[in-house]
Design a protein that fits this description.
alpha+beta; five-stranded mixed β-sheet; binds histidyl-adenosine monophosphate
Amino acid sequence: MPPRIQAPKGTRDILPSETALWAAVEGTARSVFGRYGFREIRTPIFEDTELFTRGVGESSDIVGKEMYSFVDKGERHLTLRPENTASVVRAFVEHGMHRLPPPVKLFYIGPQFRFERPQKGRYRQFHQIGAELLGGKGAESDAEVLLMLVAFFRELGFRDLKVLVNTVGDGPSRAAYRETLLRFLEPHREELSEESVRRLATNPLRVLDSKSPQEQELLAAAPRLADSLSEKSRTHFAAVCSALEQFEVPYEIAPRLVRGLDYYTNTVFEIVSEGLGSQNAVCGGGAYEGLVEELGGPPTYGVGFAIGEDRLLEVLPADSPARRAGLSLSVGPVVVAAAEKLPVKEGGLSPIFALVERLRRLGIPAVEAAGKQEKVYERAVSMQAPAIVYAGERGLEDGTYNVRILATGERLQLDELELAKRLQPFFSFTGAFPEAAPARPSPASAVLGDED
Ligand code: HAM
């Protein structure tokens, strides 16, 4: 036998038993973001490599060592997107969206690719749910985006969120701080890690990001970025904090939060969750005032965030409404089985085949299952089917069937129209608001609790 092929390192399959929960979480994002006027954009999975070297920045780890870059058969230098902000801004400029009345509000959901060492919460293909507000009004836009983010997490049932915010200042503030920080760090060069020495040359602010306890100790005495802020940056940050207070967002100022991408200016933020271990950021974002220009557009104020969906699912509260919505979304098709051995009709199709197709045309998801009753039952349970329909020869002639509703244990005799009517509520769940779903026992748990 040839050796088995497995999913590439750092990637994984999201199986049918999980996809409904993913869809429910994404449904919540669509509904909350929509309330704030954001609309979905889907950009290509790969882009010109230069988009990221220019957009995300040469000094970032992403561009420096994590990109999946390749040359295609037409000699183009391409890269699997490591993040989506640069692509969204490229699309914004390419489609002349800067000429639309501002702000332009876009959100995205999809896979991103980074060549990182895989570990819990860190994958090479991972998924982000993100949003970008372009053409915004400074602090007010930062606040709007943060409030939307918090609304999303709350709607997912998170209660103890930790929102970390900081400001990295505007261009002039950062240039001033860079010099001050370099003057402080240079004499300690010998004590710094290789990584930090490299950062001294590329982006000294990133040294503040160091996780090493030794460096953290040294950095405790470092001059603070807050002291190099221009008046404008100071006012900007104060306005963001005051908006968060006004709307009762629990936040913490994290003076060393600088973020790993080069495009940020002024406000930066992260949401962290204790449940995630070392990879504890579920969301990162901030404002960027130069990126649109850098990518060929007019000066435009941008602010946005991206949530790591894989990590979000790992720490999703046990009582999250999305779990209930996910259960409803994961209802399988009705299972139709022969109650006895049936004669094959002309043309070689089983009579069940036709019944299943008629049910589908009545709007009822249905599949055929063959075999002994226990097997059919097991299959129905594994598919989270709401019901099993048994069709015998007589029933196929007079059009009535024995139906077993798995959620309640009822056994009924119904004709096709009655059947469609009885089963319809199981499939009428419409979206992100589980409260709107018909009240009924969840088929999955009820099925699993069924005795025989
Ligand atoms: P980022 O901090 O690089 O920001 O990524 C955002 C989130 O994506 C992280 O907080 C984390 O949850 C998730 N993430 C990143 N890398 C991985 C990985 N290897 N495995 C699993 N999850 C991961 C950005 O990407 C910016 N584009 C955010 C942004 C939007 N800033 C402004 N607008």
